[in-house]
Amino acid sequence: MSALQTILPALDETPVFAVGDAVRVLNRAPIGHYRVPLYLRGHSGTVVKIIEPTMIDNEEEGFGRNAGSKRHYYRVALPLGRLWPQYTGAPGDELHVEIFESWLERIQ
Questions:
Q1: Which CATH number fits domain 17-106: 3.40.50.720, 2.40.50.100, 3.40.190.10, 2.30.30.50?
Q2: Cβ atoms of 59 and 100 closer than 8 Å
Q3: Range scoring the smallest mean pLDDT among 28-32, 49-53, 54-58
Q4: Are 65 and 56 in contact (CB under 8 A)?
Q5: How large is the greatest C-alpha to C-alpha distance in the chain, in angstroms?
Q6: Domain ranges of the chain
Q7: Smallest Cα–Cα separation from 103: which of 46, 34, 22?
Q8: pTM for this prediction
Q9: Do the Cβ atoms of 56 and 35 come closer than 8 Å?
């Protein structure tokens, strides 16, 4: 591919997180129109997939505040034993869920 054919991503089209990153689901209030279930908020997991292509923020779109900006969804694996301490299944059992970029923060 020549220099003239190089495709550069637009602002916010480059993923913020990578597969394997440890992330925490933000704990926001009020509850309102938000698309992340309450039982996931505040819990940590691992990014297992970057969903392509980028997508419009459906929460902002629902409130009529989206100007067409796009970001990524990520498939995040959350250990069931952390979500529900009384869980008695296998220790490696996980919930995989797609979460929009604006709901995640990196943890070390």
A1: 2.30.30.50
A2: yes
A3: 28-32
A4: no
A5: 57
A6: 17-106
A7: 34
A8: 0.83
A9: no
